[in-house]
Description:
The protein is an alpha/beta fold. About 30% of the residues lie in helices and about 20% in strands. It has helices at about 1-20, 110-120, 135-140, 170-180, 200-210, 230-235, 255-265, 275-285, 310-315, 325-345, and strands spanning about 20-25, 30-40, 45-50, 55-60, 70-75, 100-105, 130-135, 150, 185-190, 195, 215-220, 220-225, 245, 250-255, 290, 320. Strand 1 (about 20-25) and strand 2 (about 30-40) form a beta hairpin. Helix 2 packs parallel to helix 10 and helix 4 packs across helix 7. The longest helix has 20 residues, at about 325-345.
Amino acid sequence: MLKQLKQSLRNIGVWFFRLIGSEIRDCRTGKPLGRGLIFYWGGRVHLLGCNCAVVPLPLPEPRVTYWKQSIGFTAHPEVDFPRLSPQVSSPSAQDLTKVLLVLLDHRDPASIEKTISLWEKAGFEKERILLAYGGGPEAFEKIAHDKKFLLNELRHRTSDHQREKQSYREIFTRVSDWLTATSFTHVLFHEYDHVPLIPDLAARLARCMAEEQADVLAYHLGRVDASTNAHWLAMVSDTYKQPVALSMIGTGHFWTREAWEAVSRDHSIADSYLELDLPTTAHRLGYRLREIRSQSEFVSNLEKKRLSPEAAVAAGAWTLHPVKNSQIFDIVEQHIKMQSSASTRE
């Protein structure tokens, strides 16, 4: 109850600051970045309510003055760094069995069985689904799925994920150990409430990875260093030691095995929030990260009014998040089944 009250007060405060604040425009392009209240206090310039990670930038002056300097705001360009090594591999249409699905769930065995059934409709046989279970050991023993492991560390079991710096490091390490005796070449990670909407998700991700020449495909991928992004500001004691910091939503992402295993071994910033730790580490190790173009709009980190599964598919969605309602799960499963049957008839 107290948490909900704090959240409500916070939302009212943000709304008020945006109401009385001014529009913030990119000083380079003129594009609107958001609204916020800017004021000076205690030797610092404070920005309240802005819903975009902006980068402060000293502005050039038309003539030399010693009494006036202006500071504007801009935003980082799209993440498009090259891979340091030229070797990039993407699963071919004939080799999609080499894609392992890592499914993170903490619910009861019956709910997990339903989710696994949904992913089977999306083209993943049970042999290619590895369950990372975040619930209790008693429920874990009752889960019928064979390929599973129980998470032991506490950093994935957080209530305030960002402030408590939720981590998926144990998942990365345990999956890497599990991969040792397998021939999988790629890893698709999904939280249970980030659901597939199409029967050929792996094939579409494989094509996207090949087109982008990427090692990691992500949703809401962006560069956040030297910006007002709250997660970056809290990432390390001296944020400026990290020259490039990237952020991505943590609910779903697609990796080459090489990149996944490399990140699992590097713990330089493992104490950071997972949505910065994982992409930033991958970038620093020389791997190429790219956004899954046109798909981020269907993936949100907040529960809000969303499209129905049918409307989302009609709009071009491959996946949908968050989906916590069991009735929506049933609708999605039936919809994928219908799409698969139609594709088979064609």
